[in-house]
Amino acid sequence: MKFTLATVFALVAAANAGLVSRTAVTYSFCSTGATDPLKISSVDLSPYPAVPGNSITLSAVGTSTATVNSGASAVVTVSTGGFTLWSATYNVCTDLTINATCPIAPGTYSLSKTITVPSILPAGTYTMQVSAKNADGSELTCITAPLNVA
Ligand SMILES: *[C@@H]1O[C@H](CO)[C@@H](O)[C@H](O)[C@H]1NC(C)=O
Hints:
By secondary structure, the chain is mainly beta. The protein has helices at residues 5-17, 92-95, and strands at residues 23-24, 28-29, 38-46, 55-64, 73-80, 83-91, 97-98, 107-116, 124-133, 139-149.
């Protein structure tokens, strides 16, 4: 076999395809987030970096001091330099996988959501913001994290 650069790339791609990396990402609270009733304690993205057109699963663990009621919503925004490239709104009680059902009493819960990475995103590092509001419109949480797109 002639060992060309293309072969090397193909081998690296094949090796990467076999790996499903679950990566803990470093996140920060939005300006309002530190005093919110839902405190996120970990965020994982899998696979990471994200691949345009493929699915990515966001998993988080959080502790809430508020009861989360039916009608709570979560907005995921992907932006760069202040420009929003993609945004989606989810119903917390019906669109997210949580180890509880609404109304969710105060406590610690794990939540996850699998979404399709927008295929329009060129490779790069973006800012992902996840903000959630309770049914009455009060903020539950707001975090930002870097989103690496391969
Ligand atoms: C839900 O998951 C969290 C985080 O893993 C855990 O601390 C909690 O005990 C779980 N609660 C229930 C009701 O399973």
